[in-house]
Amino acid sequence: MLTRQLCKQIRLSKAIARAQSSNVPQTNAGQAPARLVGMQFGKQELVDFGELPRGRIPAQLQQAPEHKLSRLENNVGVVSEVYPGDLATVSIFLRAGSRYEDIATSGSARMLSHLFFRGSKGKSRAELERALEDLGAEPQLTYERELIGLSLRVAKEDVARAIDLLAEMIVDVNVEDSAIEAEKENVINASLDLCRDQWEQSVEGVFYTSFRDHIMGQPSRGNRDNVPSLNAVAINEHVEKTYAGKNFTVVATGAVNHEEVVAAAQKRLSKLPVAPTREVAHVNVEKPLLTPSLMVLRDDEMANMNMCMSYYVPGYAHPDKFLIQYVQHILGDYNAHEHGHAHINAANRQYNFLHRILGEGPGVSLQHTEYFGFSDVGLFTTWIHGNDVWSKEMLHVAQYSLGRAATLLDQVEVFRARASLFNSLLQDRPSSGLNSLIAKDVQYIGRRVDRTELAYRYSNMCEHNFMQAKIKQYFYAKETGIAIWGPCHNYIKEMHYYNNNMINATRGNPIVMI
């Protein structure tokens, strides 16, 4: 018995070392043998459940799109990643989101992103719109708590023009009181419209209750009570605090030439200072800490209830970031029309344990899991939407599922999650979403982590003993932040149920599911 336990611990330590190792094999495009092109893998390589063994990846993922990373003298990052076709997606991202505000200037980042579209110091709004029309492109705004950015999808011969125009919109933004006054109503409406998307509103709620002592917990689109007081002084101060070469990343994916991208970025962005011109002391720049609590937003006019739960996990630059992404795919997403009784008639026959439980609740409609990774911290969230009759089950089911996985995780679920990760990597195409992921790699990690490296890392984790140990480290008996929104009067009457059973749920205690 002792010998078996010792061997088990040795295998587990080796798996952890492989998963966190930086010595990941790289395979350049074109190195796969001709006989494997168009072929996923041979049957002779299959192991348990008809899956590839640990450490092996499909042939298609052994070839990653060619990418290059350069830096200008002022530390602006310039990344290109080549995909076949005649189109390209170009983006400029900067670390100037709502995290870099304070309470008095809340809303400055959102206002700044609106001003990008109102003209620059060299172009009026009408001239800017004509320039975009000439490119045949519609700008897409990426807005997060740390990164904001603009993207354009253009023909390959217009890449340099697109970068030049994006840089003018962002770097030469025209910050005037008249433009700010004209945009205040739009910024307030953007904040009000958040409640039209029940998932986004629930996530805003769980960020607040999880980080209520930090600026990260404040509304990402700004406190709408503060927006009317914003002026050019506040916006210019935000610009001076964030506009520096180290905070900018230019990303071009598709039919692009790296030297052309670098030359276009050099033309406009080389004048940015290396460090911010205004070093203003502002609050809440330290690493946020989780404030475990339950927040209830009662709205009896809503048809269904929303529950969003969060765990405190490592940030985007941490080596275990890849593991947290793996756990996200272990839980997955649920839609009653696809995974419930109406579709498969036997929810309890599914490999996904969380779907098995949710499918047995006819009042539960949707569930979505997402990992939010930032420079120094991460938040692992699960949102569930359904009838308030199932409020207690909805509140504890995600905690219970993770708690159970920490002590009893089937190997087939680990393989299923790995297959889901492989499929997501194969679906990467030039887009603002892909460019945003590349920008995060450069900003937080300092390099591009291509899909081949990701696939090898995920494949080296596909052992249920290893995953159990890591899930136990981050999710077993851990504090959570929870936000409930909707007609939750049935639940409020039994608030003690949460207080008595929350910790038991994080330990995978099935009693709480009765």
Question: Would you kindly provide a written description of the structure presented here, covering whatever features stand out?
Answer:
The protein is α+β, with helices and mostly antiparallel strands and 514 residues long. The chain has helices spanning 2-20, 108-115, 125-135, 159-171, 177-192, 198-210, 232-242, 258-269, 321-331, 336-339, 341-344, 353-359, 391-405, 411-426, 432-445, 451-460, 464-475, 489-492, 495-506; strands spanning 67-71, 77-82, 87-95, 140-143, 147-155, 248-254, 293-298, 305-313, 334-335, 364-373, 378-386, 481-486. Strands 1-2-6-3-5-4 form a 6-stranded mixed beta sheet, sandwiched between helices. The protein has a 6-stranded mixed beta sheet with strand order 7-12-8-11-10-9. Helix 9 (321-331) crosses helix 14 (411-426).
Task: Label this structure with key terms.
19 helices, alpha+beta, 514 residues, six-stranded mixed β-sheet, 41% helix, globular, 12 strands
